[in-house]
Amino acid sequence: MPRRILVDPSVSRAKIGRELESWRRNEADYRRKGWVMLRDNLDDLFVEVGFLALIPMGSIQIPIILPTIRLDYDNYDLLPPSMSFIDIFTGQPTAAPFNQALVPGPDGQDRNVLITNTNGKQFLCFAGIREYHEHPDHNGDAWLLYRHEKRGSIAVICERIWETMTSAVAGIQFQMQPSLLAPSSGLPLAQAQDLARKNRAVYDAHVAAYASELEQKAVQQ
11-64 pLDDT, tens per residue? Predict the structure, then answer.
């Protein structure tokens, strides 16, 4: 069922347009972190972003894309954006790639912030995401308390996803079927993130060496 129009779409388009301008100014930095803007649609007020992670397979580092999300900005910014996990090939809603998205808790234990609401929709339990503020457990935590902090911006939400999901992908385990080596498979969050950083360092070294080799060949020619 379509949502009620509470904000003139032209107002929301202007605000998302500024968001996209900011994204493009910083796009090179985001790309280095593995954030790729797959689609932006100002007419329908949504963006789709994919997140790349590097995993070791033998002596090489393989980039994989996960997760892929859609942010719907209708009625922005009276309301925060709605977040959905989507299939990268079809754009249709799908399950999250992991069954957990972990953050360190105040007691030192990792806490899962990947939540499923009463409609069966998965989302990250962070202020600035519409499903968080609509959840009955957060009735007293209104979006308007956070709107001035830009919690609903594309970059802020991407940072949350990167911190809790992509940055912790450390490799692949092969059993009967391949499965991603991440906190959801039992590896502690800090250890997974450390392995992911080492994987990235190895990949960057290979890229730098290849670029240097190409430069030397160009000079010799």
Answer: 999 999 999 999 999 999 999 999 999 999 999 999 999 999 887 777 777 888
Specify the pTM.
0.77
The answer to whether residue 72 sits within a structural domain is yes
Evaluate whether residue 77 is within a structural domain: yes
Please check whether residue 64 lies inside any domain of the structure.
yes
CA 14 to chain centre: 23
Query: How far apart are alpha carbons 85 and 17 in whole angstroms?
Result: 22
